[in-house]
Amino acid sequence: MLCDVTQTTGLPAPEQIPPARRPFRIHRAWFVAAVTFVTIIGAAAFASLPGLLIEPLHEEFDWSRGTIGFAVSVNLALYGLTAPFAAALMDRFGIRRVVAVALTVIAVGSGLTVFMTESWQLILFWGILVGLGSGSMALAFAATVTNRWFVARRGLVTGILTAAGASGQLVFLPLLAWLVENHGWRPAAITVALAALAVVPFVWLLLRDHPADVGLPPYGAEEVTPKPAPVPGAARRAVTVLFSAARTGPFWLLAGTFAICGASTNGLVKTHFVPAAHDHGMPITAAASLLAVIGVVDVVGTIASGWFTDRFEARRLLAVYYALRGISLLFLPMLLAPSVHPPMLFFIVFYGLDWVATVPPTIALCREHYGEDSAIVFGWVLASHQVGAAAVAFAGGVARDAFGSYDVVWYASGALCAVAALMALIIRRRPAAASPA
Length: 437
Hints:
Blueprint: H1 2-9, H2 28-43, H3 45-48, H4 50-61, H5 65-93, H6 95-112, H7 119-136, H8 139-149, H9 154-183, H10 185-206, H11 234-245, H12 249-264, H13 266-279, H14 284-309, H15 314-335, H16 342-353, H17 359-370, H18 374-403, H19 407-425
């Protein structure tokens, strides 16, 4: 009978009727990633300032560059050491609460620096308060968001969120350099405080802790993952995860390579490039603009690194990145001059592509080896990154005071990058199936 009806009406049989197309909708995970991106950009202002403070504070208070470098090193060390505890706190209290409090602490610490008169106050306000706040806004924040909200495209999202820090540097560094040179360092510190406070409403109103909060599966998954119960004892869990990971070889190799990464980026170039260029007669605003260009190029390099991480072996990517970075740093002392010239621009572009390209493959290796604890493990690996950065931030200032130049620090960092490349190659591959990337 159905065939007769079909023939007489000219309508297809029910099983031949094409299903209705679902309306295209952007997954909520991409909105969460966008809010995270904006948050990291706004918070990146505090990371742009230390290198601009060295000369003004030295001139106003007659503090040695080693003393100022020590305050910066405390900031960098706490930035890393706080990260694993912040990742555990996010499991206990939620991402929104931890990040909102961290931004407020950054604003308080940066704002109080305008009243300081002694070097210990710089260590307290900028080193400790801003260090603790920024540590809770560290890359462990990006890793936690990526692990919770994404199953597919994790490498790409990690690259995008990592690039947010470089974008923030691009936005704020030229402005802060202009403020420091024309109005002094205090308006720049106030700008950092206001930028951190301005991001708090975005975090509180728009960020969500888990896909289950809105009844959705993570991006790339088919089923809704139940929201885990809050994990009590955040500090105990962070330390327990550390002890467990420390019994494995990959942890020490990842921590060692990332310590060298921090030494050759945040500790060296971000902290000492501007004063080193100024030693050769380059204006502070010109040197700060070159760092901003690194921020532009780094966005491309880090997103590309995330794309590569989804497709190629992470440890080999790390080896290539560290080798290229080391080569570029060996040439830098020969390129510093009173004005910007084409070879210097080539260095800036080449180095910028590699600035934090190491982050996506490092997070991928943590995820491969440590599964659900990977965000906390990466927090500890990031701690080693910042300890390396802190050591070179201090050593760079001491070397400048002792030798009158930064050359020995550039050469030493280039050699360390070669060591990191070799360490990355000997990280063993996990034989078990890895979690989706």
